[in-house]
Amino acid sequence: MEAAARVIARRGVRGLRVEELAAEAGVSTALIYYHFKDRAGILRRTLEFISDRAERYTSERETPARPLDPRRELEQTLLLELQDEPVVRENSTAWGELRANAVFDPELREDLAKATLIWVQETAELLGQVSPMSPAASLAASAERLTALLEGLSMRWLSGILPLTHARTLLLEAVAVELERLDRK
Amino acid sequence: MEDVAAEAGVSKTLIYYHFRDRAGLVTSALEYVNDRAEGYADIAEDDDSLARDLLLRLLAAEFQDDPAVRENSAVWAEVRAAATFDEALRPVLTALTERWLVDLAELIADGQDDGTIPASVDSRAAAIRLTALVEGLSGRWLAGLVTTSEARAHVEAALDRELQATA
């Protein structure tokens, strides 16, 4: 799966060739077909893989003496998507590719919809811990905006238009703006 | 290139003659959809609406149940994603993004002049965030995860939050 994420991040979904994937993973093409059945199978499993991996790198903490307060927890979780680490770059590039291709691929679209929904719900939960009195609908709408903004900023960073530190600052300001409004109600 | 030639009903040679290579073709396509997008919001030169209302119309116009708007959005999203691994696409994408940002930042500055937008708003930062949000939402909208009216409501809410006075 790591090989698939690497190849997609390097060449895009359309550049994904089973031969190259097999070479990258050091196995035969027959084995790839045996495991994933077809191209759609490869894309689906790659999406699962990068979602799980993102889950891991956004929840890893250097075991702090005290747990982070809810606001810091929210900020950290979002900011960990904007890190200059090869695995984050690769994950985000592959995610962006799958997202762009989902427009033309109904099966992939459904899987991507589920993955996005989980991400939005988790972000809404974190927002709810910071702002416990806010209604669920407001939290969900804020979470939708923050995650969509994060995707937009991440694509700009990855396409070399926006420096990473600037992207991080812009995201933190957006969190502040959303929280301010949630708390006011 | 073959698909484009077939769709346009011309030879592949002609396509290569005009656009030289794939990056050239994509660059021209992007410029074309971008010009077309500027017509969506349907804002006349002499429109004297308040800057804040113009901003909302401009951003909300990115989400319409119109095949041309969807097509534009899909082309833009596709090129943006491709630019992450194809550096040849970056110059045109950077230039068009910058033009979009400058347009929005100018409208925000107009709003600060006409008093509809607080002076404390950082026009450049707000413009980057609003356009990045539009792009992020666009992927979800095209995939049917977010409806047109939901996308427009998010844009309106974000604009409202971005343009509030800060202490």
Number of domains of chain A: 1
Uncertain runs of chain A are none
Q: Got a strand count of chain A?
A: 0
Query: Structural class of chain A, please?
Result: mainly alpha
Overall pLDDT level of chain A: 89
Short key terms for the protein model shown above:
heterodimer, A: 185 residues, mainly alpha, Tetracycline Repressor, domain 2, 9 helices, B: 167 residues, 8 helices, elongated
What does the model show?
The complex is a heterodimer of chains A (185) and B (167). Chain A is mainly α. Chain A has a single domain (40-184), classed as Tetracycline Repressor, domain 2. Chain A is 77% helix and 0% strand. Chain A has helices spanning 2-11, 18-25, 29-36, 39-59, 70-79, 86-102, 106-130, 136-158, 164-184. Chain A is elongated, with a radius of gyration of 18 Å. The mean pLDDT of chain A is 89. With 167 residues, chain B is mainly α. Chain B has one domain (2-162): Tetracycline Repressor, domain 2 (Orthogonal Bundle), CATH 1.10.357. Chain B contains 8 helices and no strands. Chain B has helices at residues 2-8, 12-19, 22-37, 51-60, 67-82, 90-114, 123-142, 148-162. Classes of the chains: A mainly alpha (185), B mainly alpha (167).
How are the SSEs placed, and which strands pair?
The complex is a heterodimer of chains A (185) and B (167).
Chain A: H1 2-11, H2 18-25, H3 29-36, H4 39-59, H5 70-79, H6 86-102, H7 106-130, H8 136-158, H9 164-184
Chain B: H1 2-8, H2 12-19, H3 22-37, H4 51-60, H5 67-82, H6 90-114, H7 123-142, H8 148-162
Task: Write a concise synopsis of the structure shown.
The complex is a heterodimer of chains A (185) and B (167). With 185 residues, chain A is mainly alpha-helical. Chain A is built from 9 helices and no strands.
